[in-house]
Write a sequence for this structure.
């Protein structure tokens, strides 16, 4: 029998704590019948009856119901950040940057190759290729 009393006492304490948290976190427009401080005092001095009264008469109906997360068509300004590997715009920018770097590298290699070829021709006494400018 003592265990039953301990269990009921713990249930009463848990209910009172939940009611206090609910009361203290409720918006002003969600509290009915009495001011917030009166509800807090009722819950503290009469834990079982006060907690039940708070959940039945103290708050607006449906105020404790959690709203579902919005899904589907979200406005653009409310979009959550996306991981870089999931963001197509970021992946496209990385690919474009890579292509630009590759093109720049190939351009420098071609310039270096032309310069070396011209140096070798100049050493061997060959005339410069057509389209090449003579050195000044």
């Amino acid at each position: 029998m003592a265990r039953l009393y301990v269990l009921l006492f713990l249930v009463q304490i848990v209910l009172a704590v939940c009611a206090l948290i609910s009361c203290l976190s409720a918006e002003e427009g969600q509290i009915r019948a009495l001011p917030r401080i009166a509800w807090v005092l009722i819950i503290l001095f009469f834990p079982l009856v006060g907690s039940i009264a708070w959940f039945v008469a103290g708050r607006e109906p449906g105020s404790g119901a959690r709203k579902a997360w919005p899904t589907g068509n979200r406005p653009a300004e409310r979009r959550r950040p996306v991981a870089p590997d999931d963001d197509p715009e970021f992946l496209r920018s990385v690919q474009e940057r890579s292509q630009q770097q590759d093109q720049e590298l190939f351009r420098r290699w071609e310039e270096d190759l032309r310069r070396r070829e011209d140096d070798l021709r100049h050493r061997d006494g060959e005339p410069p290729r057509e389209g090449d400018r003579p050195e000044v």
